[in-house]
């Protein structure tokens, strides 16, 4: 009836290497770990780049053996 579908095209792949981790400990949402980002590489047809140095960190939450990244 004239409706067009949307084609989804991946923008890029991101490869993140983690450095040191700081074990924060158990909290109400699970076991918290802060992981420093050591390197980042972005590759794709429309987007490319690298991150150098210790430019960031993120926390992980571990519950029942499953790790979740707060993105």
Helix content: under 10%
Distance between the termini: 39 Å
List unreliable stretches of 5+ residues: none
Determine the mean pLDDT. 87
Characterize the overall form.
Answer: flat
Order of helices and strands: EEEEE
Quickly count the helices: 0
Measured on Cα atoms, how large is the radius of gyration?
17 Å
Structural class: mainly beta
For the secondary structure, the number of strands is 5
Describe the structure.
The chain is mainly β and about 70 residues long. Helix content is about 0%, strand content about 60%. The protein has strands spanning about 15-25, 30-45, 50, 55-65, 65-70. Strands 1, 2, 3, 4 and 5 form a five-stranded antiparallel β-sheet that branches.
Which keywords apply here?
71 residues; mainly beta; five-stranded antiparallel sheet; 5 strands
Layout of helices and strands:
Blueprint: E1 13-27, E2 30-43, E3 49-51, E4 56-63, E5 66-69
Antiparallel strand pairs: 1-2, 2-3, 2-4, 4-5
Overview in brief:
Helix content is 0%, strand content 62%. It has strands at 13-27, 30-43, 49-51, 56-63, 66-69.
């Amino acid at each position: 009836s004239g409706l067009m579908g949307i084609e989804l095209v991946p923008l890029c792949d991101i490869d993140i290497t983690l450095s040191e981790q700081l074990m924060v400990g158990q909290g109400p949402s699970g076991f918290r770990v802060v992981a420093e980002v050591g390197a980042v590489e972005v590759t794709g047809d429309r987007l490319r780049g690298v991150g150098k140095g210790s430019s960031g960190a993120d926390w992980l939450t571990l519950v029942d053996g499953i790790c979740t990244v707060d993105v």
